[in-house]
Amino acid sequence: IAGITQAPTSQILAAGRRMTLRCTQDMRHNAMYWYRQDLGLGLRLIHYSNTAGTTGKGEVPDGYSVSRANTDDFPLTLASAVPSQTSVYFCASSQGQGTSFEQYFGPGTRLTVT
Amino acid sequence: AQKVTQAQTEISVVEKEDVTLDCVYETRDTTYYLFWYKQPPSGELVFLIRRNSFDEQNEISGRYSWNFQKSTSSFNFTITASQVVDSAVYFCALSEPHSSASKIIFGSGTRLSIRP
Q1: Contact flag B107-A31 (C-beta cutoff 8 Å)
Q2: Given an 8 Å threshold on Cβ–Cβ distance, is A50 in contact with B102?
Q3: Which of A92, A98, A108, B32 shows the smallest number of beta carbons within 10 Å?
């Protein structure tokens, strides 16, 4: 069982380019999340999905979009990357809907926007 | 509003010392959950513990223990007889499951270094 996989592991991206970060889980978890981690700021929620077919905005959603076509996949898209989106991105999932359940995290994607 | 404060940015201790990581939270809800996560140098985040607001019993798991005190809005984490493998960034987090937005608020983390 792999848990949560993210791709790519790291990426250098020119400003203005479009980029999709991939996230796949094999635990059949209902809920999935995208966070960004920046030094001194901890983790901040970008978008979430409580179940396939639904998504919601987190704390810092601007410049990002997500989709949840099925249970396993939760891609994060940067439509036109900007340097302030340089960060480490973590995908997570939890068994139940809502935040009372512990979350399991992927290994992260390190993104640098130049 | 929700808020999690980890005032200790960095802590460095010598191996075998005990160390406590502080976490203070703010919430208006009576039902909430508190979490601790560990992020070792390899980068992944590892779930350590979840505690709901109605369970104030302290918990011990091996060398790890957690002290939840609603009176002071704190959920502190103690490592007894620390080891080098405990070196990591530790995050405290808070969730309010009844809030309109489904989210967990993370503290900014405490970087713990255990020196041999």
Answers
A1: no
A2: yes
A3: A98
> Please, which residues bridge with residue B59 across strands?
B66
Please tell me the distance in Å from B70's CA to the nearest CA on chain A. 18
Selection from A11, A58, A10 nearest residue A31 by Cα: A58
Check residue B99 and give its pLDDT.
56
For B:3-32, CB contacts with A below 8 A are none
* pLDDT tens by residue, B59-93: 888 999 999 999 999 999 999 999 999 999 999 99
Backbone torsions φ then ψ of B51, nearest 5 degrees: -135, 130
Q: What is d(CA B91, CA B108) in angstroms, rounded to the nearest whole number?
A: 7
Tell me which residue in B44, B107, B108 faces A108 most closely, judged by beta carbons: B44
User: Per residue in A70-93, pLDDT tens?
Assistant: 999 999 999 999 999 999 999 999
Q: Beta strand B33-39 with A104-105: parallel, antiparallel or unpaired?
A: unpaired
Pairing of strands B33-39, B88-95: antiparallel
Q: Which of A40, A3, A45, A43 is nearest to A24 (CA)?
A: A3
CA–CA separation, B106 vs A45, rounded Å? 9
- Nearest beta carbon to residue B97 from set A40, A44, A100: A100
**pLDDT tens figures, B16-56:** 999 999 999 999 888 899 999 999 998 899 999 999 898 88
C-alpha span between A113 and A21 (Å, rounded) = 13
